[in-house]
Amino acid sequence: MAHRKEDAGKETSWVARVIGFTGGGRWLIYLSMVLSALSSLCSFVPFIAVYLVVADVVAIYPDFAALDAARMAGFGWMAIAGVVGNIGLYLAALLCAHSAAFDAEYNLKLQMAEHLARIPLGRLEALGSGRVGKVMDESVGAIEGFLAHSLPDTVAAFTAPAAIAVLLFVFDWRFGLAAVACVVAAFGVEAAGFSNKAVTEKMRRHLVNQEHMTNATVEYVRGMPVVKTFGQTAESFGRLSAAVRAYTDLALDVALFWQSLMPAFTAIINNAYLFILPVGIILGTGLAGSDFRAFALDFIFYLLFVPSIAGALNKMMYISEDSMIIGAQLARIDELLGIDPLPAPRPEAVRAPERFGVELDCVSFEYGSGGEEGEGSGALALDRVSLAVPEGTTLAIVGPPGAGKSTVASLVARFWDVDAGAVRIGGVDVRDMDPDDLMGCVSMVFQGVHLFRTSMFENIRMARPDATREEVVEAARAAQADGFIRALPQGYDTVYGSAGVHLSGGEAQRVSIARAILADRPIVVLDEATAFSDPENEHLIQRAFERLMAGKTVIMIAHRLSTVVGADQIAVIDGGRVVERGRHGELLAAGGAYARMWKRYTQALSWGIGSDVKSEGLDAPCVSADKEVV
Predict the structure, then answer these.
(1) DSSP class of residue 529?
(2) Looking at the whole model, is its pTM more than 0.70?
C-alpha cells in the first residue's frame, strides 16, 4: 500500500524507488540512461581526434609539407561528429528523462492526494497546510528534477570515469597514475565531507526547519489582521520568530559546509595538470630523438586530456549532493505516506444503510497528543456518549468551548474512528461502510469555508460535477446566494479571487450551503456555520438552512442558542459527556445547564442591543435580562 513506502524503502535502493515512481514510463528512464552513456563516450571522440592530429604532426616534424590534408580533414570531421553525437544523444536522453519525470511527478502527486484523502482529517490538520504544500511541491519537485536531469547525468558521470581510466592508461601508465592520484585526492576530500553523519543529520533537520518556517509563515499571514490591530510585529509572533531563527542558524552551518568542501574538491580537480607536469619533467629529462618525440606526443595528449577529468568528476560531486538531498526529500514523502489511513472495511463486510437515522452508541474518543497516533493526551474528548437522531429529525448540540461538540460531527463523517462504542447510520456502523457511500450520505457545512480559485459556478458544482447550470442556479437561489453572485462582474462565471473579486464571510458561507443543497444528501451536519456571520447574513443563512434541512436528518453544532430553539432535541455536552437532553422548553423548565446557558445568552443580547432580540433577525421568542421567555 502507498503508506508503506517506508517499509519498501528498506528492501530497495532509493534510486530504484525513485525510478519506480515513473510507473509504466520507466523504460524511458532506462533508454535515457543508455543514451546518456553513449553521449558521454562521444564526448571523448574529439580528444582522440586531436591526439591523432598531434601524432601525425609530430611524426613529420619539421617537414610540414608532407602533412596529409585529407587525413587532417577526416580527423576534423571525426571531432565534429563526436561533438554532434555528444549533444544530440544528450538532448535525446533529456527528452526521454523529462517525459518519464513528468509521469513520475503526476503519479506521485496523485498517490499522495489519494492517500491524504484516506487519512484522518485531524492528522492532516496537525501536519499544517504549509508542510503538506512543501512536500507536495518541493519534495515531489526534487524527485522530478532528479529523474529529468540528475539521473542521466549520473550515468554519464559514471561512464566518463570508466572511459577516462581506459584512455589514461592506454598511452603511458605513468601519466595515468599521476592523473589517478589527482582523482584520489579529490575524492578523499569529498568522502571526508559526505561520510560525516552529522552533516547528513543537519541536511535532514534543515528540511524540517524549512517546513516549520513555512507553516509558521502561513499562520502569521493568516493572523495578520490581529497582528496589525494590536500594533505587533513579526518578532512578537513567537512561533514564526523561533522558526526563522532555527532555520537561519542551521542554514548557515549547511552553507559553510558546502563553502569549505566544494572549493577544495574543485581546486584539486581543475588543476589536475599540476600532477602531470612533475612527472613529465622527470620523464622527459635526458630523452632525445624518436624517444623524445614519442614522449612529447604522450605528454601533450595528457596535458590536453586531463582537464576533461574536471568536468566529469564535478558532475559526480553534484550528484553526491543530489543524493543527500533526494534521500532527505524521500524521507519527507515517506513520513507523509507513512500516516496510516482509516481502516477500510473488508469487501465482503461492506454494508450500505437503507435508512438515514444517526446513532452514537456509548462512544468514547481521545485525540492523540500532538496529532500523533498512539500517544494519548489522557483527556477524553467524548466519554461514553450516546445519542440518537431519528431519520428526518434535527439534533442540536450545544455546550461550552472544548466540550466535544465538533468531535461528534467529525466522528459521524468518520474523520476519526471512535476508540470505543460505535457510530451508526441507519443501523450500519460507519466503519463497515464504503467511504464513498458514507460521503454520499453526509453533507458538511463548516464554520470555515474554502472557495477555490475558479468560477462561482464551478465552486458550487463541485458538490455534484454532473449538475446542470439550472440546478446550480437553483441551489444558489435556495441558499440566498443568487443575488450577490449575479451582481459580480461576470455573474456565475466570475472567478473567485481574481482582481477585486472577494466575498464576505456570510456570502462565502451561503456558497458553501449552496454546495450542500446541490449535493442533496440525506444527512446534514452543521458545525457552527453561523459563528462569525453578521445579523443580516445570519438571517439569510437561516433561510438557506430551512431549505437545506427540509426532510433531512440534521446534526447542528451551535453556540448561538437562538438557532437551536426549534430543534427536535437539544443535547448539552460538557466535559465530553451528555449532561442534558430534551426540547427547548423542557430544558428551560428543568433549570439545569441549558437554562443557565440560555440566561447568559439572553443577558448578553440585552447588554449588546437591548431587550429586542428580534432586531438581530431571530425567530426565537423575545427575551430580556429579567425574563427567560416573553
Answers:
(1) T
(2) no
